[in-house]
Target: Lytic murein transglycosylase B
Amino acid sequence: MKPNVPLCLALLALVAANAGAVAKDSRAHPRASAQHARHAKPAPAIRKPAIDYEGEQVNFSDWQAVREFEDEMVARHGFERASLDALVRQMRYVESAVTLIKPAPPGKPKNWHAYRERFIEPIRINAGVRFWDENADTLARAQAQYGVPAEILVGLLGIETLYGRDTGRFRVLDALATLAFAYPEAPNRVERMAFFRSELENTLLFAREAGIDPLSLSGSFAGAVGMPQFMPGNILKYGVDFDGDGRIDLRGSAADAIGSVANYLARHGWDRNAGGPPAIPAEVSPSRAWESMLGGPLAARYKPSELAAAGVSMQLALPDDRLYGLVDLQNGAEPTEYWVANDNFFAITNYNRSFFYAMSVIELGRAVRVARGT
Model:
């Protein structure tokens, strides 16, 4: 398809007309010191992913819900209507995003060992060692400022995108517009459409604030962006300009990715004073009195004495003035593993609501630290 020059010009007008209209919140975007800015290592170049779909260039502007969305962006945020219309006309409907957002069909039983083997493997560990070596000062600074250990930050970024190697191949506006206005039939369809509509709004606000072309943002099929795979709303809430260059760049700045993940975890319950590892192995009694401790909110809710009374035992003694949770890691036909986890484990589940995910972040970070000899 040939470039549409008038539309491109209109898009540039959108950015220019609204530049500076949203002020940065200094609390959400802390600045690195001048000394750190002067001595910061250049961020590793992140390849811009190629869009791997054709998409369907539907006329979103004819959809009533889209027109109402544009009205809100004009009334609430001061966007210029003609420029917004031009932008919307370039958005594509992406059928593959609709397919990927649907729940996976029932398959094999959950298997922690199989999941672990996908992520705790030599390629990811070696890449993690290089990433840690190249960003050691930044990781140490993030750990000191936010209390999140370097190995957790390295583990999470390795699980998410292999340190920026795979950040997604969807235009964020395409994915979000599709899911905001054409979400597939599901029991929670109304709520999910509202969520993606909000993220479409956040994308336009972030692009205007950052002075970038919103169509240049690529990410996952759900609209997650950059090395840490932040949704646009989380970039606005938790994104950090950790390299001190005056902008938040989660696509090209390893420092900003590191600082933003540390900030996110700290704001979601990471406790630098928790003591000990986030999770320790446990054994459970045949009485199964502990079963009621599984499920429910992903949070530490029980004292060690309560766990012990329910038949949960650990080799490591835990302070009784802190709370813990029971974690089950299913292994298919093999016995389930049980762990006792503190607040820091559950802080990671705020990033991805999965015990497998949180444990893989912990284990990858540990494996990278051991491989570095630290």
Remarks:
- The chain has a mean pLDDT of 87.
- The beta strands are 170-171, 218-219, 279-284, 312-313, 325-331, 334-341.
